Amino acid sequence: MPELPEVETVRRSLAGRITGLTIEKVELRLPKIAIALPGTLFTDALGGRRIIELGRRGKYLLLHLDGDETLVIHLRMTGRLIHLRPEERGAPEPAHTHAVFFLDDGSLLRYTDVRQFGTLTLMATAAALQQPGKGRLGPEPLAEDFSFPDFRNALAKRKTKLKPLLLDQSFLAGLGNIYADEALARAGLHPDRTADALDDEESRRLYDCIRTVLQEGIDAKGTSFRDYVDGEGRKGEFQEKLWAYGRERNPCRRCGGEIVREKRAGRSTHFCPRCQK
DNA sequence: ACGTTGTCCTGTCTGC
DNA sequence: TGCAGACAGGACAACG
Q1: CATH number among 2.60.40.150, 3.20.20.100, 3.20.190.10, 3.50.30.10, domain A4-130
Q2: Given this chain, do its domains A4-130 and A148-271 carry the same CATH topology?
Q3: Which nucleotides of B are covered by protein (CB under 7 A)?
Q4: For residue A241, what pLDDT band results from cuts at 50, 70 and 90?
Q5: What positions does the entry give for DNA binding (predicted)?
Q6: Alpha-carbon distances of A226 from A20, A58, A159, rounded to whole Å
Q7: Rounded distance, CA A36 to CA A208, Å?
């Protein structure tokens, strides 16, 4: 599941390969995944556009194009964006390839998605930077201006439990099920704790652990628990460093207690009942 | 404001 | 072994 560290890794792996190239043609095999500006055809709108820069906001990958428009890509769970150099473009096309971008250096960008949940949306760059999805996005957890006092104040305003709160993209952008569980595990906080009941020290731990776990995820080039690979088709390594996610019935790395997996808000939630209080 | 459920989708796993 | 059903989940809508 591409979360912030995975999307950032895709961004970095693609940036050096496709920045500055022009999209000559797009083949869209599954039209429902693509959304263009009203009254325009997605494939027509992208042809001839130059890729200026690759950005990211939360879990959204942003391909900034000339003409002040941006292709907003959300990979959801199983989306993949793989770049093939000119000499690699004969490689067999994977199943579930929904869009192919032909670039002017002879290379290809293939978009595949088994579950068809991901989306490609073309919109004005200003709109993409402000709000790439339907709802408002919360702060970027790794940005310099994401301060502890702000986070502490935001926590104090919310009566909801930590697990659903961390998954709420309007509260904080970029955490998904894996990194939410990891941040809570590292912070030693129970997923059912109520946000406004955290004291200063606990809030500080959560703030620090969210940032640490995301940065370590990026450093390890993402978590390849099931499907995820970067823009060059490479798996990440953070799955080897997880404390909680996917480790049910295994010993807690901090206290040796048994990690459990229980449903919270419809999602599997992994934690150590002994040391996450 | 908060919590839950349903929707989308298909590959993989589980149970009989 | 084969098949049916459950499960995985990010964003969003709808409802209580």
Answers
A1: 3.20.190.10
A2: no
A3: 1-6, 8-11
A4: very high
A5: 96, 115, 158
A6: 32, 21, 33
A7: 39
